[in-house]
Automatic annotation (TrEMBL):
InterPro entries: ArsA/GET3_ATPase-like, ATPase_ArsA/GET3, P-loop_NTPase. It catalyses: arsenite(in) + ATP + H2O = arsenite(out) + ADP + phosphate + H(+). This is arsenite-transporting ATPase. CDD domains: ArsA. Transmembrane segments: none annotated. Belongs to the arsA ATPase family. Its EC number is 7.3.2.7. Residues 9-102, 112-212 form the ArsA/GET3 Anion-transporting ATPase-like domain. It holds the Pfam family ArsA_ATPase. It comes from the Bacteria. It comes from Klebsiella variicola. Residues 1-22 are annotated as: Disordered. Residues 1-15 have a biased composition (Polar residues).
Length: 214
C-alpha cells in the first residue's frame, strides 16, 4: 500500500498479520469450543491455544480465505521465500492430504493446495536479483514448489543494471557481471522471464508503477 501511495478503482490491498490472525482465531475458539466448558476446561483450552502451532493454523485459515477470493476476482499474493512461507505450504499440503483421506471417492472437493497446483487458475512468479545467491535461493524454492506439485509460471529478475541506461564505467562493468546469472535463469530455470531495471528512485505511486509495464 505504501508503494501504491493512493487508491485505484477495483483494487483492494490487504495484509495477513500473524498476530492479529492468531488473536482472532483464539477468540473464535474460546467463543465456540470453550463456550460450554467449566473454568478448568477453559484454562486447559487457553493453554492449548498458546501453542506455536496456533499461529500456523490461524495464518493458514487467513491464507485459505484469500485463496477462495480468487473464485470471484483476481488475487495477487506477495510472500517471501522464508521458513514461515514454507511452513504455510506444509500446512496447506497437510490439510489437502487430510481432506483427501477423509473424502476418498465420496465426492468432489477443492483444497487451497489444489488451487495452487492448477496452472490455469494460479500463476506463480518467482522474483529474484541477477546475483548468484538470490538466483540459487529462488531455484531451490522452485524445486520445493515443484515437489509439492506447484509449477512456477515465470521469473522476474529485479533491479537489473543490464537493461538500465547508465554511463558509469563501474555500473557498466556490474551490468556485464549480471549476464551469466540471467543466462542461468533463462537456460536452466524459467521458460518465461521479465527484467526490471534498477531505478534511481522507488516507483511510488500509480503513474510510476504504470511506467514499469510500458
Amino acid at each position: 500500500s505504501t508503494t501504491l501511495n493512493g487508491s485505484l478503482k477495483n483494487l483492494q490491498v490487504s495484509r495477513i498479520n500473524p498476530h492479529d490472525e492468531t488473536e482472532r482465531y483464539r477468540q473464535h475458539v474460546l467463543e465456540t469450543k470453550g463456550r460450554d466448558l467449566d473454568e478448568a476446561g477453559k484454562r486447559l483450552l487457553e493453554e492449548d491455544l498458546r501453542s506455536p502451532c496456533t499461529e500456523e493454523i490461524a495464518v493458514f485459515q487467513a491464507f485459505s480465505r484469500v485463496i477462495r477470493e480468487a473464485g470471484k476476482r483476481f488475487v495477487v499474493m506477495d510472500t517471501a521465500p522464508t521458513g514461515h512461507t514454507l511452513l504455510l505450504l506444509d500446512a496447506t499440503g497437510a490439510y489437502h492430504r487430510e481432506i483427501a483421506r477423509k473424502m476418498g471417492d465420496k465426492g468432489h472437493f477443492t483444497t487451497p493446495m489444489m488451487q495452487l497446483q492448477d496452472q490455469e487458475r494460479t500463476k506463480v512468479l518467482l522474483v529474484t536479483l541477477p546475483e548468484t545467491t538470490p538466483v540459487l535461493e529462488a531455484a531451490n524454492l522452485q524445486s520445493d514448489l515443484e515437489r509439492a506439485g506447484i509449477h512456477p509460471w515465470g521469473w522476474i529478475i529485479n533491479n537489473s543494471l543490464s537493461i538500465a541506461q547508465t554511463q558509469s564505467p563501474l555500473l557498466c562493468q556490474r551490468a556485464l557481471q549480471e549476464r551469466p546469472q540471467i543466462e542461468v535463469v533463462k537456460n536452466q530455470h524459467a521458460s518465461r522471464i521479465a527484467l526490471v531495471p534498477v531505478m534511481a528512485a522507488e516507483p511510488t505511486g500509480i503513474e510510476k508503477l504504470r511506467e514499469l509495464v510500458v
